[in-house]
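Obj.: predict assembly geometry.
Materials: sequence records (below).
Method: joint structure prediction, all chains together.
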Amino acid sequence: MSPMPSLAFGLALTALSLPAMAQEGSALSPRVVNEAAVPAVMAKAVDDFIIPGYRNLSDKTAALAKTSTALCKTPSTASRENAQAAFSELVQAWSTVEIIRLGPALEQNRFERFLFYPDRKSTGLKQVQAILAKKDETATDVASLKGKSVAAQGLGALEYVLYGNGSEVLSNKEGEFRCRYGVAIAQNLDTIANEFLAEWQKPDGIQAAWKKPGPGNPEFRDSKEAATELLGIFVHGVEMVKDQRLKPFYAGTVDGTPDKGHPKSAIYWRSQNTMPSIAANFAGLKTLFKVADMDSLLPEDSRSVAGSANFVFNSVIGISQTIDGPIANAIADDKSRAKLDFLTLNTADLLDRLNRDFGGAIGLGAGFSFADGD
Amino acid sequence: MGATTGLIDRRSFITMAGAAWVATLGARSTFALERTDAVFASAFMAPDGSFGLATLTEAGEIIERTALPARAHGMAYSAASERTVAFARRPGTYAMILSADGSAEPIVIAAAEGRHFYGHGCFSADGRLLYATENDFAGNRGMIGIYDGTRSFARIGEFPTYGIGPHDMTLSADGRMLAIANGGIETHPDFGRTKLNLDHMEPSLTLVDTATGALIQKHTLPADLSRLSTRHVDIGPKGEIWFACQYEGARDDLPPLVGHFSHGEDLAFVSLPESTTAALANYVGAIAVNRNDGLIGLTSPKGGIAVTLDAGTGAVLKQERVIDAAGVAAADHGFAVSSYDGRFKDHQNPVAWDQHIVRLARS
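Observations (raw structure tokens):
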């Protein structure tokens, strides 16, 4: 059970005052990357988070392909609900690993093909609606679907197929075309998930580069570069939630005036997966932090930095899980809105802890995102 | 008293910048660029996480600081109009113009609808116009925003950069061309700083006519260097354009990182020793030319190094370890180099210096 927002917020403020950051003139130990600890951390990140995460993703895409095929074969309300449940489980699996936006995810537009968001101009929506209206057969074949716009072949498109206007036809034979399009998307997602897994499982592929930083390595010449990439997952992950997942639908309360909100800009609003997805993003980051032993990169006198980051992880995950139902209702409801305000504040706090406190303490200078040149 | 704003009304500007920051602008005497010993300016982050801009002496001592509403990146100085501009870091939405003699209040301009700043720009030869590299993010094309200094830097037009992801831009020696480093990386503010096209980058260097906006020359890079992002430029002793790159390809490649070209000529890459390319970590963060000494200065925060080249031969004259090396600018002799951990020449300051330094004079 999560604490009430007011209580949890009070605790978060207390945590803020911990002497976590390397301050000028303080007696903390010198801030240099603990190079000896890095390879083990990278190996655990790969073996205990990334590969199991993509394996889970692949399981969930396969399950979705199966349930959506079954839906087409025997359309009914029950089989439609089965497919929807498989979709929600896939969203959970994806939200856990989508924080790994590097390596194979950046190649062949895999990330965007899996999830195209934000879609501010509703490009994807219009394309999906056009495919459904014209009964475009090329969208029902996984090979030709792959060549279509990234916005018409991923989770956003499938959510519309399963939950959007007219989706009730899936419960009977009228939904035959819509259903086959959904199957093609599910198969496409399954293919991409298997590619992620295969790329990371290749013994001489990206995992080898991650585990052994050094000269001749195609990813990292030394352990500091590897540590920078890994910390980047956390900083970019929290930034993504803050700027691309929360802000588009609710900008917070400013000077006592709450943002009126844009519920239809929220990710997965049709399937009510907005908050479950955000909770899974944070849970993925927290799990990675733990299983990779990120705290082993900290000097002894700064171990409290990890504890306070973990505290805020727990509080943002807990509060995200208590906001349920349609996101429009949550924005309109005083109690839920207070939770969203709490979440917004604590997400910014978490970003600062990881970027400045943790980044500084493990020896990445003025903080991670400060040091990315440009 | 407050800031004069070119394109945004005061109300929305205050919302953007924060009232506390605007209040600091009132006392113009607190930030006097007219001090004759003010030789450099650089953006910084203070220990409390706030951002600002400082002037420094030739020796690297801070003279004064002013607060900025958000993190700044590149700067430019005009000797003709004695103005300095600081651009917000990409995808930034503001630029602040300061007058050197303190006679005018700082002017803050906001990015136009559908555009954001990339963090660099320059003044026209007469100092009247300000050019900024900008992103037309819906169209995914680089633009040059043009701002009129005689009208509070109102945006009076734009030219294309003839490439995507422009970053640094400078004025040619004769003042008739803008030299632009189109980094070739697609970004969109909806996705923050995420690089969206690493497997199909389109880096290029272009020369654009300041009078007409016409494309004078465009150099794309060969296919095997498509992941070499051309990012920063400066003008060499003979008017040639020097450029420095950041490589997005495999870490164990040894791509060329620095080169130069002149109007009507092909690109010429400097062939650096492998040890220098490796030491730069395939990433040059800033480049500067010391025209009097005939030297090229390079810094790499990723490699933790500052390198000096002979502008005539490209030979490496000096390679110095500087942890978290940030900016580089021509000094009275050689270069001033700063670092994220507060070093500026031989002085240690309690700030984190940002990636670029501007010299407040044409050397």
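Conclusions so far: Chain B has a mean pLDDT of 89.
To do: check interface contacts against the pulldown list.
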